[in-house]
Each structure stands twice: as structure tokens, then as C-alpha cells.
Design brief:
Elements: H1 3-21, H2 31-42, H3 47-70, H4 73-90, H5 97-107, H6 115-159
Helix pairs in contact: 1-2, 1-6, 2-5, 2-6, 3-4, 3-5, 3-6, 4-5
């Protein structure tokens, strides 16, 4: 199994456990987190691309939560959907789960206006940090092996 997939699996289990055992952290675990984790772990994204996906997800959460609080239900969900799609297209955010994040307040209304967006920000920030650290650890672990292998190849060629 891919190392990043193992890391995000462990991350999701920890976030789930925390959300079940610490009531204040319940909003940290939401279904789309798993999807975004997979998207971020399986693609080679630059820090800028990762940050733009995170920013888009937080903005979509703000849109959805704000419209859910201030507009009538049908108008709110329509406005959330249309503006989220426009944002995804305008900023070329190649992460469809962002739309699902925008719609979360309509299925699980937050207790306050900032709960959802803050939970999205914290969970994705920790996810990106975790993936970055996993990638750094993998590169550090591989570099001595690659260096030793290239030295062995050079010795082999010299002996021929």
C-alpha cells in the first residue's frame, strides 16, 4: 500500500476518534474529509495548489454556512451551489469535494456560524501538514538508499 494512503488512513482514524471522544472536536470529522484526503494524497500537488484547494474548501464552507443562516432554504442551497461551482471554475480548483463541503450545512447544520469553516480549515491544515511531513520522511528515507545504490553501480562499472 502507498505510504501516503497509510498516513491519511491513520489521520482519518485519529480525527474520527477525537471527534467521537471530545465533544468540542466533533465538527473536525466530516465525510468529505476522506475524499479530500485521497485527492491530496494521490496527486503530486505543489504547495500553492494544495493551499488553493484548502482556501477554496474554507471559502465554500463559509459560503454554505453563511447562506444557510441568512437566506431562505431553497434560495440558500441554489446560491451555495451556483457560487461554489463558479468559484471552482474561476480559480480552476481541481477538487470536486469542495462543492460537497459547501453543502454540509444543509445536512448537518452547525451550532454556530464559524464552527463549520473553522473545522474545515483546521482539519485540512493538519492534513496538509501531515502529508508534507510524510513526504519529507519518505524523501529522507529514500535518499540514503538511492545514494548507496548509485555508489554500488559506480563501483560495479569500475570493476568491469
Amino acid at each position: 500500500m502507498n505510504t501516503k494512503i497509510s498516513v491519511i488512513s491513520l489521520y482519518l482514524v485519529i480525527i474520527y476518534w477525537l471527534s467521537m471522544h471530545v465533544p468540542m472536536l466533533k465538527p473536525l470529522f466530516y465525510p468529505t474529509l476522506g475524499t479530500l484526503s485521497y485527492v491530496l494524497a494521490t496527486r503530486q500537488l505543489t504547495i500553492r495548489e494544495s493551499a488553493s484547494i484548502m482556501t477554496g474548501a474554507v471559502a465554500a464552507s463559509l459560503l454554505g454556512t453563511g447562506f444557510h443562516y441568512w437566506l431562505p432554504e431553497t434560495v440558500a442551497i441554489l446560491a451555495t451551489f451556483l457560487l461554489s461551482v463558479l468559484m471552482i471554475q474561476r480559480f480552476r480548483l481541481n477538487a470536486p469535494p469542495i462543492l460537497a463541503i459547501a453543502l454540509i450545512p444543509y445536512f448537518a447544520p452547525p451550532t454556530s456560524l464559524w464552527t463549520g469553516p473553522l473545522a474545515v480549515f483546521v482539519s485540512l491544515a493538519v492534513l496538509l501538514l501531515t502529508l508534507h511531513l510524510a513526504e519529507l520522511a519518505m524523501s529522507l528515507w529514500k535518499s540514503p538508499r538511492v545514494e548507496a545504490q548509485s555508489q554500488a553501480e559506480q563501483i560495479y562499472r569500475q570493476g568491469m
